[in-house]
Design goal:
This protein is α+β, with helices and mostly antiparallel strands. About 30% of the residues lie in helices and about 20% in strands. The model has no long low-confidence stretch (mean pLDDT about 95). It binds coenzyme A (COA). The site of coenzyme A has 19 residues, from strand 4, helix 3 and helix 4.
């Protein structure tokens, strides 16, 4: 059964956070509510929500930073995996970016997430010859 995919509604908030936690996408130093608020407030981002019978079972946060498209928080409920819903969410996210003239989309996958890497490879995503650098702009919460 295909997903219904629509933009975020405020009533989705708790279900989305539960989904992201169930999919191990949250980190204690990231505030998912703040992430949602920023995406909702931005004209260059949206939160796509996938439902089945009105149950929230998938998400993708998609946005454009002025140069590239980015996708974050791609998630499919663990009990609904391998049904094609991840592919559906990615197709919708790519459509959202294409409609805004975005020539290229990229995303980051944690090194240990081999399942997600295999999934993205199946969708035509390829490893890029770039090094991702980061720097904390506050005391590193990872050091706690
Ligand atoms: C990654 C994730 C979104 C995939 O969603 P899904 O609904 O299970 O994937 P789909 O059923 O749409 O699979 C699409 C394709 O990817 C392939 N695929 C999915 N998982 C795979 C794996 N572990 N190994 C190889 N191929 C895989 C499928 O075979 C399928 O290919 P096909 O359509 O040609 O048959 C889902 O597993 C998830 O939510 N994981 C936890 C959160 C996460 O890691 N998100 C990514 C953060 S970067």
């Amino acid at each position: 059964m295909a997903l219904d995919i629509r933009d975020f509604r405020e009533a989705d908030r708790a279900a989305l956070i539960a989904l992201w936690e169930a999919c191990a996408l949250t980190r204690r130093w990231d505030d998912p509510n703040a992430d949602m608020d920023r995406s909702i407030a931005s004209r260059d981002a949206t939160i796509l929500v996938g439902t089945l019978d009105n149950d929230v079972i998938a998400s993708a946060v998609v946005g454009h930073d002025g140069h590239r498209g980015w996708i974050y928080y791609l998630a499919v409920s663990p009990d609904r995996k391998a049904c094609g819903h991840g592919r559906e969410m990615m197709a919708e996210a790519e459509l959202w970016l294409t409609a805004r003239g975005t020539p290229k989309v990229q995303l980051m996958v944690r090194g240990e997430n081999e399942t997600a890497t295999a999934f993205y490879n199946a969708l035509g995503y390829e490893r890029q010859d770039v090094t991702v650098l980061g720097k904390w702009l506050m005391p590193s919460p990872e050091a706690d």
